[in-house]
Amino acid sequence: MIFGQQDHFFSLVDSLSAIRLLSRMPIEGVSEQQFLDQALEALIEYQDLEQCSIFLLEGDVLRCTVGGGVNTFSRRGTDDPSADTEGMRFTAGEGIMGLALQSGQIQYCRNCKTDSRFKPFSRTTLFYGDGSLISAPIVSDDEVLGVLNVSHHQPEFFQTWHQHFFMLFANFLGRLLHLHRLVNRLEDQVASRTHALAQSLEESEKLRILHQELSVTDELTGLCSRHHFFVEGQAMLARAVRYDHPVGLMLIEVDQLKSINDKWGHLVGDQAICRIAGTLQQEARTGDLVARLGDGEFVLMLPHTLPAGMESMAERIQEAVSNLDLLHQDETVDLTASIGMTTLCELGDMELQDHLDLLYHQADCAVECCKREGGGQRRFYSPALEL
Fold first, then answer.
1. Tens digits of per-residue pLDDT, 46-104?
2. Non-local CB neighbours of 246 within 8 Å, separated by 6+ positions
3. How far apart are CA 325 and CA 274, in angstroms?
4. How do beta strands 337-343 and 378-380 pair?
5. At CA 144, angle to CA 57 and CA 94, rounded to 5?
6. Where are the beta strands (DSSP E) in 208-305?
7. Among candidates 371, 352, 109, which has minimal Cα distance to 259?
8. What is the DSSP string of 151-175?
9. Which CATH superfamily is domain 2-188 in?
10. How far apart are CA 343 and CA 164, in angstroms?
11. In the chain, domain spans
12. What integer is the mean pLDDT of 348-355?
């Protein structure tokens, strides 16, 4: 009697050890398959069991996820215990484990040879087909996630305390499995959102670079943008003042752009703008600042340039523009440009930005005068144009 009590005591200690080992299992950084493998190893290590398996619910069917016995787990390495169990499935109410799934209660088959509820396995990896079997539902929050199966070759082997222990183990396993799925689902969501965030940051960086490029470069022509002109123009003025060298500003406007857009559409108008932009790039020297200010309006800022040099360049530009061979539907599109020019005067107390605005205003006055005279003209600014 004493020896029987000692055996029972040690069995209870082993059961608590299995629960303790289960509680210490990591739920992060392992797959569900690895997690369940470790759970069965913890059970087999501290219990006198020959075969164990875990069937998880997939839809309405229980499918064997992991299973084996002492020998199976001891030779883990090249062997895959799940390979022998692939294809083993049970529905609710089918066999002992199907009843455990259906009822949500532990099922004890005392003698599988005589119990009509038992459905023999087609393979013997998990159970030999005789002896005793316990199927305990793996539950979390009243939801059956699967079934834990334990067996022994002896009929009537499992005692009442076994049933209580396996029910406790299955319930604890269910809570941990549910937590594992939540953690991994959260990790997947974090990974997915991190990836989405990385993509958004990458796209934002691309947009930032694009915006920066667009703020420097005119998208249609590739010339400097209006914004960049007024930034770089101030720097050119500062250098001209510091080193006391001449600088001129030339404003060029396409005379026919509105009529071209009205007659042939903006696509042809854009072609005209691009062709003229190419002409200005060819005529510009190294160090000159060429920009498109908008629509058919262009500007050149010319360091180290006297009025005579500006006049000569303006003449070449007008000639090149008039010689552009722009055709649309076999019809020649005639192009001319009006050019207004001005040069740097004394800054006085004016800020660089104010002086650049003044130069632009003066050149614009000269351009408007050219357009009033029919276009295709060039003119230097004079105060009389303000009248």
1. 676 768 889 998 888 998 888 865 333 333 333 444 444 545 788 898 889 899 999 99
2. 240, 303, 304, 305, 306, 343, 344
3. 13
4. parallel
5. 60
6. 247-254, 289-294, 297-303
7. 371
8. EESSTT---HHHHHHHHHHHHHHHH
9. GAF domain (3.30.450.40)
10. 100
11. 2-188, 226-386
12. 82
E-state strands within 255-344: 289-294, 297-303, 327-328, 331-332, 337-343
> Does the pTM exceed 0.70?
no
For 118, the 3-state DSSP assignment is coil
- 228-285 pLDDT, tens digit each: 999 899 999 999 888 888 999 999 999 989 998 998 888 989 999 999 999 999 999 9
Q: Vertex 228, ends 226 and 232: CA angle to 5°? A: 125
Q: How far apart are CA 186 and CA 180, in angstroms?
A: 10
Q: What residue ranges in 23-129 does DSSP mark as E strands?
A: 51-58, 61-69, 89-91, 107-109
Class level of CATH domain 226-386: alpha beta
- Using the 8-state DSSP alphabet, how is residue 386 labeled? G
Assign residue 141 a region (left: φ > 0; alpha: ψ between -120 and 50; beta: otherwise).
left
Contact present, 292 and 277 (Cβ < 8 Å) = yes
**Mean per-residue pLDDT over the chain, rounded:** 83
Contact 341, 360 (CB under 8 A): no
Measure the CA–CA gap between 158 and 152, rounded to whole angstroms: 8
For residues 268-304, b (16+ Cβ closer than 10 Å) or e, as one string? bbebbbebbbebbeebbeeebbbbbbeebbbbbbbbe
213/155: higher pLDDT = 155
Q: Are 330 and 369 in contact (CB under 8 A)?
A: no
